[in-house]
Specification:
The structure is a homodimer. The first copy, chain A, is mostly helical. The first copy, chain A, contains ten helices and no strands. Chain A is elongated. The first copy, chain A, starts with 6 loop residues before the first helix and ends in a 33-residue tail after the last helix. Chain A binds a DNA duplex through helix 1 and helix 3.
Chain lengths: 253, 253
Amino acid sequence: MPYRPTHRTLTRQAETRRRILDAAQTLVIEAGYRGAQVASVAKRAEVATGTFYRYFPSKDELFAEVFQLATRRELERVAIAAHRGGSVRQRIARVVEVFARWALQERSLAYALIAEPLDSAAGQERQAYRRGYQRVLKGLIAEAVAGELCAPVDPAITAAFVVGGLVEAVLGPLSPEAGSTDQELQVNTLVATVDRAIFGDSALEGSASMAAERAMGRVTDGSSKKGSGVDGRGSSPRGEAAPASPLKGIKPL
Amino acid sequence: MPYRPTHRTLTRQAETRRRILDAAQTLVIEAGYRGAQVASVAKRAEVATGTFYRYFPSKDELFAEVFQLATRRELERVAIAAHRGGSVRQRIARVVEVFARWALQERSLAYALIAEPLDSAAGQERQAYRRGYQRVLKGLIAEAVAGELCAPVDPAITAAFVVGGLVEAVLGPLSPEAGSTDQELQVNTLVATVDRAIFGDSALEGSASMAAERAMGRVTDGSSKKGSGVDGRGSSPRGEAAPASPLKGIKPL
DNA sequence: GCAAGAAATGAATCGTGGTTCACTCATGTG
DNA sequence: CACATGAGTGAACCACGATTCATTTCTTGC
């Protein structure tokens, strides 16, 4: 009975599998899901396209796994942030902080993971992050409502609102210039905004992450006028209170 | 010089053009952009595919126009809501209300217009709505900040946050069951949430739309416990304050 | 070294969907 | 009516990208 996979062989195969997964993730980060064709992934992993199908049944399966790995890793961090001690309010602030910091840091991956348009594909899998994140927030908000720490808002709707808001605010204009803004400041702004959306504007009590307090401190700081320098992109020179036609950029026709 | 288009001919051509546009919009509403291939549009408009290219240079151009028409129509309504009298706070509430009500009513169109993943295509055009809507809110928020009616938040970031939040909260789970929730209630909840996110939780003063006040009134209504019946989808039976693992639905692997 | 499989390969295949084009039909003009 | 020219047609074409498969190249056990 000639041939039976030996240890060395199995090891090499495992390595190949990992190489393909890595190549896929790298490509997603560099070029988005759209730029990650099977051919490119295979090339990057230094195998032939045919070999790819020896390790994965389809492209979808591959990316389902890629997204799952990244998603799981990140959701775990968020979950931890949600459970480490402190008041609900502090925990919410921490969760937002963890998310915002990660998204700003690993912008490309975060974008591919939760914001990039991908029609069919592993789209289902991809939504796991959003859903999971929403679930964490929903739990925290429900806890706050139950403890009468905030107005009796609907946890599900509010959680959805917050997640959508964060994603848009952080990843919305995925313009070329990435580090154009003071990250720290942006994170604090978002923490404060979420805090206000859920708890209103009474001052944050405890300590812990302090992020919210810091940002809100800026707020009561009489020196600031508005605009505050954080702009998301150096768009309009002034945050004019003027109407600013919403139809700009839309051809009259 | 034989032949020169007569009036009747020109009229018929204009009609054909409109038929194609209508067919395209209808298809987008019914099947999303993905289900709107040139062949389908042509068939629906009762012309041959070749004829289509006699009226539009490309599929992209067609949908750019389709999106533009819908976008412009809707943005105008929002802009009007933003300018009709009342305090800034009231106007913001009205803008949110107009948006939310429209999105809930014309769910499919709204989804295709601002939430459906569409990779390349007329994607640029499509973003016009989001951007325009953001611009309106940014203006209003800047006005509020200038008048010191709210904390000196960053108008751009806050506007992005609000738009993203609304889109997610209204169109996020575009599940089959559309009218599963009390629309009015959902609108009020959102108006209240946005109001809180921008102005904190002091009571809304004026009158006008009153939507926010109504929703906030519910809030101080001692009878409601939490959950409030509005859930976005009949997910978990109870909005348990418990952790609720965020990793649910993600295979261990 | 050698035969029996397994693994790797990449060119060919297939499906999808936008775009073209050779042709027919309709409509004006003299 | 006869002809010129635009309009309409739909089958063919093309690009792109996932998947397959006949062929070649290892691996293993003797």
